[in-house]
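Tokens help. Our protein:
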Amino acid sequence: MIPLVERVRVNVADPELARAMTQAIADAIRAALPSELPAPAPPVVRFRTRKKLARLLTAPEALAGALAVVRVTSANARHLEAWVTEVRRAGVAGVQLVWNGRDPAPERVASRIFRVLEMARATLREAPVMLSARAVPAQALLLSISMKGTSP
């Protein structure tokens, strides 16, 4: 049963009318909902160091189908392209680079981030890669993952 339907309560003195109204409301709710419920969000793995990535790579089940969220730092920027390649090969559903555009300074990391995004754009059959200022998985990334199977 759909949880929303279970919460419908009609308070009418006539029990037969209450049942009919409850049924009509439940039918309307079912008709308004999509036939397929959205898939649950994939698990999220976060890393920003080689050590943490190495640990994740030793347990491939932790990466398979997960969202990899990578905070960009001055220290890890030079490794981003290799790391994204590794986690995509390991079977992640998507990669989100996290950088607010200011810290670290753009002159230190912007070209490296751009290179990673261009590499991802050139390899569309692999997991999508996006840039966000927030560490919470972006809706655009989740949508891109869900649409990946429908593109040519």
About this structure: Residues 15-32 form the longest helix (18 residues). The chain has two domains: 3-32, 44-148. Helices lie at 3-6, 15-32, 50-57, 60-63, 80-89, 106-122, 139-148.
